[in-house]
Amino acid sequence: MEEILALAKKVAEEAEVYTVFQRRNPRSIESNRLKNTQYKQSQTVASRIIKNGKTGYATSTSMENCP
């Protein structure tokens, strides 16, 4: 992420890069009994820049091919 931020700062007046992690554990109950449980995890990387007074925003769910 530091590399992404460094690249963004080269072209923008202001820049930020951040990661959002999300974990979910949904369960389904049927007739007062646990029927199913799952574990889901996701990661999103986002960047926001300001250039010439305008804001640009980008997100990705994969860090593949990132610098």
How would you describe this protein?
By secondary structure, this protein is mostly beta strands. It has one domain (2-60). It has one helix at 2-11, and strands spanning 14-24, 27-30, 33-37, 40-51, 54-60. Strands 1-4-5 form a three-stranded antiparallel β-sheet, with helices on one face. A two-stranded antiparallel ribbon has the order 2-3. A hairpin with a 2-residue loop joins strand 4 (40-51) and strand 5 (54-60). The radius of gyration is 19 Å and the shape is elongated.
What is the count of β-strands? 5
Helix count from the secondary structure assignment: 1
How far apart the termini lie comes to 8 Å
The domain tally reads: 1
Strand order of the largest sheet: 1-4-5
- Shape by Cα distribution: elongated
Instruction: Output mean pLDDT.
Output: 87
Largest sheet: 3 strands, antiparallel
- The share of residues in extended strands comes to over 45%
Assembly of the depicted chains: single chain
| Helix/strand/pairing category | mainly beta
- Low-pLDDT residue spans: none
Instruction: Give the C-alpha Rg.
Output: 19 Å
- The ordered string of helix (H) and strand (E) elements is HEEEEE
Percentage of helical residues? 10-25%
